[in-house]
Amino acid sequence: MLHLYFVRHAESLSNVNHHLIGGRSNHTPLTEKGIQQAKKLGERLATTAVKLDVVAASSAVRAYDTAKIMCERANLDFDQVLVSDELQELSQGDWEGKVRKEIYTPQMLSQINSNNWLHKAPNGESQKEVEERMFGWMEKHVFPLNDPDQAVHCAIVTHGNAIRCLFRKIMNSTPSMTHRIKLDNTSITKFRYAGDKDWYLDYVNDHEHLDKSTSPLHVDDLNKKHLQNGR
């Protein structure tokens, strides 16, 4: 069975400039806070009983650097990390870097919400295109690793909207709910995959390494506990 740990990158400059539309913004660096978040994530992984068999990361600077710092602190070989453009964030095309309130007028929001799964910015991507891109990468690089006789653990460092879009496809949920999934920087969301569309969601938005008092209530096998519920 595949154990898949989806990690949102650490805080970047785009995350603190909320008034601007981020999208891919692939050259945006981590903030100092983000660097510390990535270190804490790696330190957490270093103390768990789980051995990661595969680590992958988006090629965007903020995800790449998160994975590098995480690996350094977790004593993992960063040279073995699978870095891919296919794990990048949803592209906002011509809107990237624009002032959010100038683009997202009431009229534009109404248009977006009328079909947010297929809507895309000029020269950007739709949620549907992102989920297909992400799932296609999984089919190519992750699903072939599935072994019914043993657990294979994979960490994938990527982006908030990219993760949400992939989850929509995995869970076959309504697209109108995609943006409602909260994913904090360096949070871990875990799925298990047994093959042939056999998916199990273990937990969402686990950021215990940042602040245990605000970590979501879950049962975490990274801390040697066992999940009881499944789909």
How would you briefly describe this protein structure?
With 231 residues, the protein is α/β, with parallel strands linked by helices.
Task: Write a structural description.
It contains seven helices and six strands. It has 231 residues and is an alpha/beta fold. The protein has a domain at 1-153: Rossmann fold (3-Layer(aba) Sandwich). A six-stranded mixed β-sheet has the order 3-2-4-1-5-6, sandwiched between helices. β2, α3 (61-74) and β3 (82-84) form a beta-alpha-beta unit. The two termini are 15 Å apart.
Notable traits:
7 helices, alpha/beta, about 230 residues, 6 strands, disordered C terminus, six-stranded mixed β-sheet
What's the N-to-C terminus distance? 15 Å
CATH architecture of one domain: 3-Layer(aba) Sandwich
Class from secondary-structure proportions: alpha/beta
Rg, Cα atoms, Å: 17 Å
What integer is the average pLDDT? 91
**Total count of helical runs of at least 4 residues:** 7
Here the CATH topology of one domain equals Rossmann fold
CATH class of one domain: Alpha Beta
Low-confidence stretches: 213-231
Query: CATH superfamily name of one domain?
Result: Phosphoglycerate mutase-like
Mind summarizing the main beta sheet? 6 strands, mixed
List strands and helices in order, with pairings.
Layout: E1 2-8, H1 13-16, H2 32-46, E2 54-58, H3 61-74, E3 82-84, H4 100-103, H5 106-114, H6 127-141, E4 152-158, H7 160-171, E5 188-193, E6 199-206
Parallel strand pairs: 1-4, 2-3, 2-4
Antiparallel strand pairs: 1-5, 5-6
Helix pairs in contact: 2-3, 6-7
